[in-house]
Amino acid sequence: MALTIFILQLAVYILAFPIYLLNFLGLWNRICKIWFPRFLERFTATYNEQMASKKRELFSNLQEFVGSSGKLSLLELGCGTGANFKYYPPGCRVTCIDPNPNFEKFLIKSVAENRHVQFERFVVAAGENMHQVADGSVDAVVCTLVLCSVENQEQILQEVCRVLRPGGAFYFMEHVAAERSTWNYFWQQVLHPVWYLVFDGCTLTRETWKALERANFSKLKLQHLQAPLSWELLRPHIYGYAVK
């Protein structure tokens, strides 16, 4: 099986040679940072349609974590185009973090379309180092379709715990590796190297639930599901929330 995967990966490498050449020349990352937000705007619109019921379920108890200020203070990690804004409760104060500054104009559009949320600021930073956000300063952190592409999941989760107030919650919805005995996992392995390059570091084979189980949360509510998505490779999902 390993030999078959290697041969198919080699074939995919050959087909994707122009992208690898651009990457070797140091040009692909620049192109990807401009192209990816445009792609994600379209993708998340479709994703929200297909996952609307699960997102409503996921965020249904956000108000339970309102702190002493009386308004929910929320940090969205890897905010992208702001596709989650529509699911946040009225009056929610939102700070967004993303390492790609090219998302800002899409984020501003989403803010204009979701006047029920109070947008505070957009911070250009990686989730592994959110020093711009004070310790224990937010009621909730949200992270959807992000942990697949971060460099260090453990460090991200440490930062999440740092910025959350005691009793605050971390909400997540992520695509993950399929079960190892399935054809889906086979094709995830075959396509992973090229997928990672084309989709700005997205990893198809991450078992993200293991990092969440190891993190320092007092409570973890995590569910696996086969998401009703058009792209079969992305159907294996986890979603839920953890309490500090």
What is the topological layout?
Elements: H1 2-15, H2 17-24, H3 28-58, E1 73-77, E2 93-98, H4 104-113, E3 118-124, E4 138-144, H5 153-163, E5 164-175, H6 183-198, H7 208-214, E6 219-226, E7 236-243
Parallel strand pairs: 1-2, 1-4, 2-3, 4-5
Antiparallel strand pairs: 5-7, 6-7
Helix pairs in contact: 1-6
Describe the protein's architecture and organization.
With about 240 residues, this protein is an alpha/beta fold. The protein is about 40% helix and about 20% strand. Strands 3-2-1-4-5-7-6 form a seven-stranded mixed β-sheet. It is globular and about 60 Å long.
Helix content: 25-40%
Q: What average pLDDT do the residues reach?
A: 93
Described by the principal axes of the CA atoms, the overall outline is globular
Main beta sheet strand tally, sense and closure: 7 strands, mixed
Q: What is the strand tally?
A: 7
Computed Rg: 18 Å
Count of DSSP-assigned helices: 7
Indicate the structural class: alpha/beta
Order of H and E elements: HHHEEHEEHEHHEE
Low-confidence stretches: none
* First-to-last CA distance: 42 Å
- Main-sheet strand order equals 3-2-1-4-5-7-6
Taken as a percent bin, the fraction of beta residues is 15-25%
Key features of this structure:
40% helix, alpha/beta, 7 helices, membrane, Thiol methyltransferase 1A, SAM-dependent_MTases_sf, 22% strand, 7-stranded mixed sheet
Task: Summarize this structure briefly.
With 244 residues, the chain is an alpha/beta fold. The chain is 40% helix and 22% strand.
